[in-house]
Write a structure and sequence with these properties.
The protein has 388 residues and is an alpha+beta fold. The chain is 16% helix and 38% strand. The protein has 5 helices and 18 strands. Strand 10 and strand 11 (219-224) form a beta hairpin. The termini are far apart.
């Protein structure tokens, strides 16, 4: 495969397949020399290098050399997430890279960590302004594109290469399609998704609304935007953020989204507001093309610019359960900024004694730059702030 113009933070280009694909291990000699903060005063000796990408307009900041507290040998990626949430130094680094002035309220990224075992190419801890999430579809798409573009996972000039990634919700695959030596698109094959609850009533300041709850690597509350008198459009985003926060908080206060097996995956992570963007179209082979639009409000009021990968996976589970999306059908899922994911059912399955589907979500990601973040010892605004 010819080298992609983007060579990533290491400067290595993809030179084509080898006998054994490299597995991600935490960098040693070339790792940034920062030290994690201790109890109160962080001891920072920087710098921190990142590779910035976007998927459908949603940012994704990749940190190849992650804090030592989450890169040691032994734990699974799910256990590393728990450790990250409890470690003051890891949280300080997340806040530094995510918050202003180095980031913003809607920044998103990941610390790369070793995978659970040799069956995966790398592991990822996804983060945002409020902490660490269990899943991230747009981030998985970006990581697949980055791994192939930088040569971490060798790929042919034309073909499809699987990048296997361990994330807190399980093992996922980014199938990267290359054409003419460049990444064309990435299909994110997620963990099984299922319907958690239907017709859950939630009291909001705008009245009582009914939502469905589904799991797509994280728990999502899903409802049509019209139930609040709103549309999926930029001018309604402020109102949708307020409603999304209310719905999430009310459901979590009621413990309405308890995962049947793993408490670490419990709780509503985001609210997905939907609308139909066009009537279903029957294709010549008898399958159907659905065209929906959505905006996902996740964590504490963050707005996903992309169609949201794990939110789309939850949407696939709901549509499959309702019989609106069958094997062979396709969902064209559009974001609030007009970017598009294409989603389908990879296969049907059963998890936790209930029907489930393995969703496949296709999109693409693009490099936006590389950064080397530093901290001036006299700077009083570290690790940063979020003004919202």
């Amino acid at each position: 495969m010819t080298a992609d113009p983007y060579t990533g933070p290491t400067g290595t280009a993809n030179t084509g397949p080898t006998d054994t694909a490299p597995r991600y291990t935490a960098p040693t000699d070339t790792a940034p020399t920062y030290t994690a903060p201790t109890d109160t005063a962080p001891t920072y000796t920087g710098p921190i290098d990142t590779a910035d990408w976007h998927t459908g307009g949603e940012p994704f900041r990749i940190v190849p050399a992650s804090p030592p507290a989450v890169t040691g040998h032994g734990p699974t990626v799910a256990e590393r997430r728990t450790a990250a949430m409890a470690d003051a130094g890891v949280q300080w680094t997340r806040a530094l890279l995510c918050g202003e002035p180095r980031g913003h309220a809607d920044m998103y990224g990941a610390f790369l960590v070793p995978p659970d075992d040799a069956g995966a190419d790398l592991g990822a801890l996804f983060w945002h302004k409020d902490g660490f999430s269990t899943a991230c579809g747009h981030g998985t798409i970006a990581l697949g594109a980055w791994a192939v573009a930088t040569g971490l996972v060798p790929a042919p000039a034309d073909g499809t290469t699987d990048v296997v990634i361990d994330v807190p919700s399980g093992r996922v695959t980014a199938s990267v399609r290359t054409a003419g030596g460049r990444v064309a698109d990435v299909t994110f094959v997620n963990v099984p998704g299922h319907v958690h609850a239907r017709g859950v009533e939630v009291t909001t300041s705008q009245g009582t609304v009914t939502v469905d709850i589904a799991y797509g690597g994280a728990m999502y509350a899903v409802l049509p935007a019209y139930r609040l008198g709103l549309r999926v459009r930029p001018r309604d985003v402020t109102a949708l953020v307020a409603a999304g926060r209310e719905i999430r908080d009310a459901l979590n206060a009621a413990h309405a989204a308890e995962h049947p097996e793993d408490a670490r995956l419990s709780g509503v992570y985001g609210t997905v507001f939907t609308e139909e963007a066009g009537a279903p179209v029957e294709r010549p082979d008898g399958t159907w093309l659905l065209h929906h639009r959505n905006v996902t409000v996740f964590a504490d009021g963050q707005v996903d610019r992309s169609p949201c990968g794990s939110g789309t996976a939850a949407r696939v589970a709901l549509l499959a359960d309702a019989g609106e999306l069958r094997l062979g059908d396709e969902l064209r899922h559009e974001s609030v900024v007009g970017s598009v994911f294409r989603a389908r059912i990879e296969r049907s399955t059963t998890v936790h004694g209930r029907p489930a589907v393995v969703p496949a979500v296709t999109g693409t990601a693009y490099a936006t730059g590389t950064s080397r973040f530093t901290v001036d010892p006299d700077d009083t605004l570290v690790p940063g702030f979020v003004l919202r």
